[in-house]
């Protein structure tokens, strides 16, 4: 049972004002795996239609926090989340929130490309079909084509839509997974080290895509690469030993950070 869902959120469920430009608001989030206290009192406001990067040394809690944002941690029995996470002002851990619907609104792309063992077409059509987004085949065809276009993959696959998705290169598979996430019209896309299994050319394509996608989506990306964070994000959050130690404009973070731990990490003194 997730203790966050039982909290009284009456004072925190007001809609975010457009003036504040906050898409995701996390307040005092604590995460435990059994006895292990993995995240300590994390609070952050994430802006809409921008890219926020999470950086920090291995084991500091970046992925744990990312998974809190679409309740993927619900699937881990030992995991307990406390605090508040609001999306558009609504507590996503409220009992009335359906995690399946939430994950359509907050899509996820994982470290290792994980297409279904189905055709390219079916990989993208699956989500819209189960969420009832298309009334007829031609509408589904349009969603598949538009999603593959948004993922920058259409030209490479338009003549082989019925071939297996697992037959694509690693970089193409990752863009297929991005197309699959985009197909259900999410508002937020979470990316957990999406380029770590890709070569530099495929990485560059995915980074270019992230740059384009931020016009329409709020993107949160976990990355081990500070160069990647600097290239793709507008805001960066630095985690260390379960704490969010600094969150800042990316330019400032990599030139003149406020926190000594950020300074040490970007100078390669640890991690
Ligand atoms: N399913 C789990 N069960 C128990 N402990 C976990 C689990 N997942 C993560 N942890 C622990 O929580 C802490 C944070 O892990 P997390 O994977 O969030 O860190 P990270 O910063 O994303 O690390 P990395 O960069 O190596 O992926 C670590 O100490 C890790 O061992």
From TrEMBL:
NCBIfam families: 3a0107s01c2 (TIGR00972). It is found in: Cell inner membrane. Belongs to the ABC transporter superfamily. One of its GO terms (biological process) is phosphate ion transmembrane transport. It comes from Rhizobium straminoryzae. GO terms for cellular component: plasma membrane. Keywords: ATP-binding, Cell membrane, Membrane, Nucleotide-binding, Phosphate transport, Translocase, Transport. Its main location: membrane. Part of the ABC transporter complex PstSACB involved in phosphate import. Responsible for energy coupling to the transport system. PANTHER family: ABC TRANSPORTER I FAMILY MEMBER 17. SMART domains: AAA. Residues 24-266 form the ABC transporter domain. This is Phosphate ABC transporter ATP-binding protein. The keyword Translocase applies. Pfam families: ABC_tran. Residues 1-21 are annotated as: Disordered. InterPro entries: AAA+_ATPase, ABC_transporter-like_ATP-bd, ABC_transporter-like_CS, P-loop_NTPase, PstB-like. It is a peripheral membrane protein. GO terms for molecular function: ATP binding; ATP hydrolysis activity; phosphate transmembrane transporter activity. The lineage of its organism: Bacteria, Pseudomonadati, Pseudomonadota, Alphaproteobacteria, Hyphomicrobiales.
């Amino acid at each position: 049972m997730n203790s966050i869902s039982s909290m009284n959120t009456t004072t925190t469920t007001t809609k975010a004002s457009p003036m504040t430009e906050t898409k995701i608001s996390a307040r005092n989030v604590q995460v435990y795996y059994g006895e292990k206290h993995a995240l300590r009192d994390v609070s952050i406001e994430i802006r809409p239609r921008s890219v926020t990067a999470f950086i920090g040394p291995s084991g500091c809690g970046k992925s744990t926090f990312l998974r809190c944002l679409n309740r993927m941690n619900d699937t881990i029995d030992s995991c307990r989340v406390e605090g508040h996470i609001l999306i558009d002002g609504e507590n996503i851990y409220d009992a009335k929130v359906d995690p399946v619907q939430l994950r359509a609104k907050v899509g996820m792309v994982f470290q290792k490309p994980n297409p279904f063992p189905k055709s390219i077409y079916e990989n993208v059509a699956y989500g819209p079909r189960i969420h009832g987004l298309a009334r007829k085949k031609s509408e589904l065809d349009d969603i598949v084509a538009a999603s593959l276009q948004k993922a920058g993959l259409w030209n490479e696959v338009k003549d082989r839509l019925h071939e297996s998705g697992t037959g694509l290169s690693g970089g193409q598979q990752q863009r297929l997974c991005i197309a699959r996430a985009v197909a259900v019209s999410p508002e937020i896309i979470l990316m957990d080290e999406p380029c770590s299994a890709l070569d530099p050319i495929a990485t560059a394509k995915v980074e270019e895509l992230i740059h384009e996608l931020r016009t329409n989506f709020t993107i949160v990306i976990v990355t081990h690469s500070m160069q990647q964070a600097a290239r793709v994000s507008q805001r960066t959050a630095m985690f260390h030993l379960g704490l969010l130690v600094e969150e800042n404009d990316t330019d400032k973070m990599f030139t003149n950070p406020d926190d000594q731990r950020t300074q040490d990490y970007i100078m390669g003194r640890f991690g």
